[in-house]
Amino acid sequence: MSRRVLITHADEPIGRRLTKTLYHDEEVERIVALGQGRPPRSFDSFLSGPGRRLTYARIDLAKHRPVTDLFHSPSLREARIDSVIHLPRHGPPSAPPTTGERPLVAGVAERTAEARLVLQHCLESGGIRNLIAVGSAFVYRLAPGNSNRFTEESELDLDPEVPPEIRSWIDCDMIFHGEVHNENLDVTLLRVPTIVASGGYVFMNPSLSSARGPRVRPLGFDPMCSLVSDKDVVRAVRLALHARRSGIFNIAGREAIPFSVLARWTGTPSWPIPGSLLRAVSRAVELVGGEDVRSALDGPHLRFGFTLDTSRAEHQLGFRPGYRIGLSRAGDGKLRIETAPA
């Protein structure tokens, strides 16, 4: 059965990779790609190709009016979309270690607003039968130590003191989780850990893909970080699209490494700071309104690590990680994170 798919944030790194993958999927008949910026140059041949299987639209998905206008537009009715893939905003990738630049990611309010609006219009559309959302595995409640092994039934971190960045992921998770058993819409939620792409790029890690500059962690703690390749995330989304299985699925790769090692691999200074000093700095940042920065300074994710049980995704979606993550020497002689087929 062919699919007619809408992809959000298709202009961002994972969205670009997913769009190109589905464009070459013979079972995908039509793609509507949404983004906030201009169409990526890599889409040029797709947008001008015969049959126009891909169309692109610019939209702010956090604003009610533009999203409503889009879902009620003649062009979307003509596209007869039956499946929506909601990728969260993850911004540009963190810069390779040579540049020293860091990205700015979406604010927490925008992320939650997007999730709510996309779900609402999928439920009201009448023609959309499948919604796949990519969420974060940092929603789980972390107990002390590195022995946390989470299944999809593990407890979420509902502590009111959870950092705002992680709170936004929990809010989005609960928005989609609430419709998993809806009879009119198949809702699939994929919980992913830190996403790694070749060249030292890191996405959706609360400490490495948000605030600029050096990262800090409480002295004496070096949490284990579960990793997954961006290519494996795209594979998992594609499998979920064709499987049409409602439910929540953990998606992860084979590797888990200490935070300090991941920071070093991405060229990010990582400083261990006494906990009392870190708490004082965190409170000071909060008082001046730096919530996004605070989320990278404090929280259990900087103390306790976790890994994910992905057996449900293997049995129901057919997902097994196909890529390994490690170091490779780049052309300039420096070591970079690379992903390669296992």
Written overview of the protein:
The protein is α/β, with parallel strands linked by helices. The chain contains 11 helices and 17 strands. Helix 1 crosses helix 7 (230-243) and helix 3 (64-71) packs parallel to helix 5 (108-125). Strands 3-2-1-4-5-7-12 form a 7-stranded parallel sheet, with helices on both faces. It is 32% helix and 25% strand. It has one domain: Rossmann fold (3-Layer(aba) Sandwich), CATH 3.40.50.
**Intertermini distance:** 30 Å
| Strand residues, percent | 15-25%
Largest sheet: 7 strands, parallel
Number of strands: 17
- By DSSP (H or I, 4+ residues per run), the number of helices equals 11
Summed over residues and divided by their number, the pLDDT gives a mean of: 87
What's the CATH architecture name? 3-Layer(aba) Sandwich
Helices and strands in order:
Blueprint: E1 3-7, H1 13-23, E2 28-35, H2 44-48, E3 54-58, H3 64-71, H4 74-79, E4 83-86, H5 108-125, E5 130-136, E6 148-150, H6 164-177, E7 186-192, E8 194-197, E9 201-203, E10 215-218, E11 224-229, H7 230-243, E12 247-250, E13 256-258, H8 259-265, E14 270-273, H9 275-287, H10 291-297, E15 306-308, H11 311-317, E16 323-329, E17 335-341
Parallel strand pairs: 1-2, 1-4, 2-3, 4-5, 5-7, 6-15, 7-12, 8-11, 10-14
Antiparallel strand pairs: 8-9, 11-13, 16-17
Helix pairs in contact: 1-7, 3-5, 5-6, 9-10
